[in-house]
Design goal:
single chain
Length: about 190
């Protein structure tokens, strides 16, 4: 049975963060014997056989190993917990999810694994930018139409967007593009 290495053996830093996260899953799986984990890595879907010595070295911080090895260990520990490695890392009680932390177990472990390889503390590591918000069809934040989309100058009625509260007139068929400028001044 393994124990989390002390700070004198594994000092604070990216490697300790990685080992600590692996130990969270090891503890949640009730500290299974290493041969049981090793056997499970070879029988799972998309198997990647990992030896019990490699598992021991990963859990004690003596190696970092390749991502497929670390991922196989995570998947085996999650299977022993009856947990999805691609599920949210910290599910809330009563089926309530914390929208501030949507990261999965696998994503978080991979981030720690990369930090360990690069020698970065979690505070120094680059963060994946958030996805761009979806465009809405009305309200603030919509795109301003280009001059080609609106003809007839300011307040022209040729092809004003339907959600423009300042547009005048009703939308009509856009005039044929002549390639030049309109007769109306821009002000």
């Amino acid at each position: 049975m393994l124990r989390m290495p002390g700070k004198d053996v594994l000092p604070p830093g990216p490697k300790r963060e990685l080992v600590n996260e692996l130990f969270v899953h090891y503890r949640e799986a009730d500290r299974p014997p290493l041969p049981q984990i090793a056997a499970l890595t070879g029988t799972m879907p998309n198997p990647h056989q990992v030896s019990r010595e490699t598992i021991r070295r990963l859990l004690t911080g003596q190696t970092t190993s390749q991502w497929p090895v670390v991922d196989a260990l995570l998947r085996a520990l999650c299977q022993l917990q009856d947990r999805d490695p691609d599920g949210r890392r910290w599910p809330e009680s009563d089926d309530r999810w914390d929208e501030d932390d949507p990261v999965t177990c696998r994503e978080y472990l991979r981030r720690l694994w990369n930090n360990d390889i690069d020698g970065l503390d979690p505070d120094e590591a680059p963060v994946t930018p958030p996805a761009a918000p979806a465009q809405t069809s009305s309200g603030w934040g919509t795109q301003v139409p280009s001059p080609r989309q609106v003809s007839g100058g300011w307040g022209g009625s040729a092809s004003s967007p339907a959600d423009d509260p300042w547009a005048t007139g009703s939308p009509a068929k856009p005039p044929a593009q002549s390639g030049g400028y309109g007769d109306e001044p821009p002000f």
